[in-house]
Write a structure and sequence with these properties.
The protein is of the alpha/beta class. It has a single domain, classed as 3-Layer(aba) Sandwich (Rossmann fold), CATH 3.40.50.300. It contains nine helices and twelve strands. The chain has a six-stranded mixed beta sheet, with helices on both faces. The chain has a four-stranded antiparallel beta sheet with strand order 2-1-4-5, covered by helices on one side. Strands 11-12 form a two-stranded antiparallel ribbon. A hairpin with a 6-residue loop joins β11 and β12. α4 packs across α5. It is globular, with a radius of gyration of 19 Å.
Length: 264
């Protein structure tokens, strides 16, 4: 397994600073949640971590090596990304979508071999998408599309997987199944999440973005405190330990007038 780290990342768009000196590390084999309200910079950070966007300053390291120094095919074999709203420009099937995960291992115009097929079958089974394999992408619900994209990433057989809100559009059952699956994978996982309670239950560590900076990082129990929730989310909350899961559970009481506390 492999670490994924970013050191002092800064990035701006339209003359607005989106990320400001962000340093973060996903340790080998752990599930790290990136949390924060809308506009905090979560998607921008994930795209930079995955090598899809170049920061204005700072460096991303994959297994201790700068991502910019590695060949693109090497990065594609070692790291996969699942975005919120992937664009599919042609009407392809689920099976063809998942097969795209094998692209880094194939030469141009080469067909799928036995190893490719085995990886595709395994990914479809893990995500519960075997019965959908012949379905057109455009006939899928948002949740089904999300699971198909996760299957594509798993077919890639990466060491690191980066996911932007993987539980979006999913029913509660599938939210739990996807997060249980991610926690069971033999790989390093970095995922943006909105739901603090799901993050507390299924993630080893959390990093909270607030106004483009890391407000706190560490274990869910250490980070997800009423004070942090008040400061970052402008919500009063009580945080207890669930007698059922042993994980921290936040109960939200009300919003705080005036909005979140500005980042320093």
């Amino acid at each position: 397994m492999t670490t994924l780290a970013a050191n002092d990342i800064t990035w701006s768009a339209d003359r607005s600073r989106i990320l400001n000196g962000v340093s973060i590390e996903a340790r080998s084999g752990e599930v790290l949640a990136v949390l924060g309200p809308n506009g905090a910079g979560k998607t921008s950070l994930l795209r930079i971590l995955a090598g899809l966007r170049r920061p204005d300053a700072g460096t991303v390291f994959l297994g201790g090596e700068s991502v910019r120094s590695l060949p693109r095919r090497t990065v594609a074999r070692r790291m996969a990304i699942v975005e919120q709203s992937p664009e599919v420009h042609t009407d392809i099937t689920v099976d063809e979508t998942v097969a795209l995960g094998r692209t880094p291992y194939r030469s141009t115009f080469a067909g799928l071999d036995g190893e490719d097929r085995a990886a595709i079958e395994h990914a479809l089974a893990l995500t519960g998408m075997c019965a959908y394999r012949s379905r057109s992408w455009r006939t899928l619900s948002g949740g089904e599309q999300q699971r198909a994209q996760l299957a594509r990433a798993l077919a890639q057989q990466p060491e690191v997987i980066v996911l932007d809100e993987p539980t979006n559009h999913l029913d509660i059952r599938y939210q739990l199944e996807v997060l249980t699956l991610l926690h069971s994978l033999d790989m390093t996982v970095v995922t943006a999440l909105h739901d603090l309670n799901l993050a507390a239950r299924y993630c080893d560590r959390v990093a909270v973005l607030h106004a483009g900076q890391i407000a706190a990082s560490g274990s869910p129990a250490a980070v997800l405190t009423p004070e942090l929730i008040r400061s970052v989310y402008a919500v009063e909350a009580v945080v207890d330990t669930s007698p059922h899961t042993g994980a921290p559970v936040a109960t939200y009481l009300d919003g705080r007038p005036g909005g979140p506390t500005p980042a320093p």
